[in-house]
Amino acid sequence: MMNLPPHFVKTVTSTFAGGAAWLENLPNLLAECEQRWGLVVHPTNFTLSYNYVTPATLADGTEIVLKVGVPNRELSTEIEALRLYDGRGCVRLLDADHDKGVLLLERLDPGEMLTIVTNDDEMTRIAALAMQKLWRPLPAEHNFPSVADWGKGLVRLHEEFGGGTGPFDEGLVDTAVSLFTDLLASSGEPVLLHGDLHHYNILSAGDGWTVIDPKGAAGEPAYEVGALLRNPFTLFDEPELKQITARRLDILAETLSIDHERLRQWSLAQAVLSAWWSYEDGGDLADWEPTMRLAKVLLEVA
């Protein structure tokens, strides 16, 4: 039996149908990967959330990262996005098996998260440049969810509470719904977005930075900044949250050459949606309240 972190076990079992059975079979799945690809799986030293991620070594001595998860649409679109990025600004996919939920990825060195940079302005500029490297036209046929698809989460919020908003601030929810409607109606040509681009998904590689864990989504570039503004986790301990958020928006608007107000509006709408997703995934007040607090800040930032 594997000694898996309790929070990882809880996340997998509560998020995925069949999650418990998948965890029970995980040792067998890792053994299958070793045999199929001729690799050696090492004990993990990564923080686990929805997938089991661990170092591994190929037969020729190449160090890689093995990522396995309960097969689901999000894991499949990650594989599709990685193939389209093809190592340009994003970690390179070496091989994958959609049906088994297995990804073999290049190992980034030194692989430190963007949070090692202590200056928030510098972190924000690095992240903005990482975004620009990723955005590219969508293929004619693809399976990526659209931003509109994701926005339907707010419909589920109302359904959950019989047309109301439950513990969520009614004014902020109404604002988010209105913004989604208006922004989608006025969006330009969609591109391939990362979909969850924040400080923990930007790693040091050589003398630069490389992105990991793309969700893959179809939407306008302005949508991409929302996840960055909700991170890192320590952000919500900052007494100057409003000033930090305003400064970040200024830097992002300037670096990306995207309208400041559009960035703010998308980020506000996403903050509410993200809070709902946390609630929907079984999170308690401590999981989603800070994000709603950021939504209120974004409402007040000029």
| Overall average residue pLDDT | 96
User: Level of helix content?
Assistant: 40-55%
Radius of gyration: 19 Å
Q: Total number of β-strand segments?
A: 11
Strand order of the largest sheet: 1-2-3-5-4
In percent terms, what proportion of residues is strand?
A: 5-15%
Order of helices and strands: HHEEEHEEEHEHHHEEEEHHHH
Could you tell me the CATH topology label of the largest domain. Answer: Aminoglycoside 3'-phosphotransferase, Chain: A, domain 2
Main sheet record = 5 strands, antiparallel
Report on the architecture of this protein.
The chain is globular and about 55 Å long. The chain has helices at 6-15, 19-37, 73-85, 120-134, 147-151, 153-160, 170-185, 226-229, 241-256, 260-280, 285-300; strands spanning 40-41, 52-57, 63-68, 93-97, 102-106, 110-113, 136-137, 191-193, 202-205, 208-211, 217-219. α7 (170-185) packs across α10. It has 302 residues and is an alpha+beta fold. The longest helix has 21 residues, at 260-280. It starts with 5 loop residues before the first helix and ends with a helix. 35% of the residues are buried.
Please describe the topology of this protein:
Blueprint: H1 6-15, H2 19-37, E1 40-41, E2 52-57, E3 63-68, H3 73-85, E4 93-97, E5 102-106, E6 110-113, H4 120-134, E7 136-137, H5 147-151, H6 153-160, H7 170-185, E8 191-193, E9 202-205, E10 208-211, E11 217-219, H8 226-229, H9 241-256, H10 260-280, H11 285-300
Antiparallel strand pairs: 1-2, 2-3, 3-5, 4-5, 6-9, 7-8, 8-11, 9-10
